[in-house]
Amino acid sequence: MPSPSIELELNSLKDAVSMALDYAAKLGTSGAEVAISKQQGLSVSTRLKEVETVEFNKDGALGITLFRDGCKGSSSTSDLSPEAIRRAVKAADDIARFTSEDSFNGLADASLMATHIEDLELYYPHETTPLALELLAAAAEEAALSSDPRIKNSDGASANAHTGMKVYGNSHGFLHGYSSSRYSLSCVVIGEQDGNMQRDYDYTVARKFSDLWTPEAVGLKAAQKTLGRLGGRKIATTKLPILFAPDVATGLMGHLVGAISGGSLYRKSSFLQDAIDTQVFPDWFTIAEQPHLKGALASAYYDSEGVATIDRNIIDNGILSTYLLTSYSARKLGLTNTGHAGGIYNWTLAHTGQTFDELVKQMGTGLIVTEVMGQGVNGVTGDYSRGAAGFYVENGVIQYPVEEITIAGNLKDMYRNIVAVAKDRDLRSSIRTGGILLDEMKIAGS
């Protein structure tokens, strides 16, 4: 539970939001919404166990958007005094009076507002100091540098502790706020063997400080990943099964987010245009969105328009069940708001029962992709072509690291041709998935 002092500060921010909404109502606007975000954090980075930077941030602002019969105006202020808030509301109203009318503008429907809101356990305060964070970062570097003589250098480590508050209200009478925390530790190291140099990293992130991996675990994992890349080579141009490592698989699913988002759809710039209720993935494949997971990194009872979030299947037995719509994009498309203003909420991919290592064996001969590079993804056509690195696998056993290759395909085909999803999920992002095995992709090499 938040402490009394946190509750007091939250109530103060709610009062500021209420004040802005009252000012807006007196101006005769057709609707208004106000949001305040306030963050405080400490970050320490080291290199070769010596402090490079110490950064402390404390900032926040009130943002207000007013509507006048389809015209929209927005302004913001970091000064929360009554007079500054009044001026911000007046500025937003002045802008609204001179903008073009757009009939799709406006608040989300009142009937969609969240009414049942519980504590999602997103806030775990932890007192720390620059010295404490420095010791964490330095310990991660020490673990990596002392693990193997081939780890020659460090590209730095970073330890971070951040807390924040968010309050949102609108003229439907919705007003709510909550606190959150996020802690992280990362380490990047450089290895050398026979004149060949490679770098890699690892990281941990959590709402609760005690849930972070130890610095030794982060450093050793960064070192192991770096050492694994030494001696990389190209392979001949071919077609092979591809196994995306979990942290790369999240990016593969990230392209789906963009393709089914309202903005892409009403602009007709998506390779999944008009794909609702059609088979996009294999018939065993499901993505469940779980907004109310306690303590998760992407949990919320409402989106940035106050719309209630709900458990739903984004992909249900391979079929695209829903788009990701805000109030504006829903009106543009003549559909219903899905509560996705501000992003997605804990997408969890159903797995096929195997661990990642078991998928390596199942693949037989193929390529594990541990890194992709470049921007070669066309959101309109789905064409996919990116630089990649990873490991060549033969008879289910890793043979050697691979680098300087390109993997290519089309996302429509790639999604349909997913063979399996590993059960050991990476939970460090809003997309929670294990490794993803595809039956085949084009590989451009030597």
From TrEMBL:
Metalloprotease TldD/E C-terminal domain location: 238-445
Domain of life of the source: Bacteria
GO molecular function, a single term: metallopeptidase activity
GO CC entries: cytosol
Pfam families according to UniProt: PmbA_TldD_1st, PmbA_TldD_2nd, PmbA_TldD_3rd
Location of the Metalloprotease TldD/E central domain: 133-230
Keywords, comma-separated and alphabetical: Hydrolase, Metalloprotease, Protease
Any single GO BP term: proteolysis
Domain Metalloprotease TldD/E N-terminal intervals: 32-96
NCBIfam families found in the cross-reference section: PRK11040.1 (NF008268)
Record-stated family: Belongs to the peptidase U62 family.
Protein name: Metalloprotease PmbA
Species, as recorded: Shewanella colwelliana (Alteromonas colwelliana)
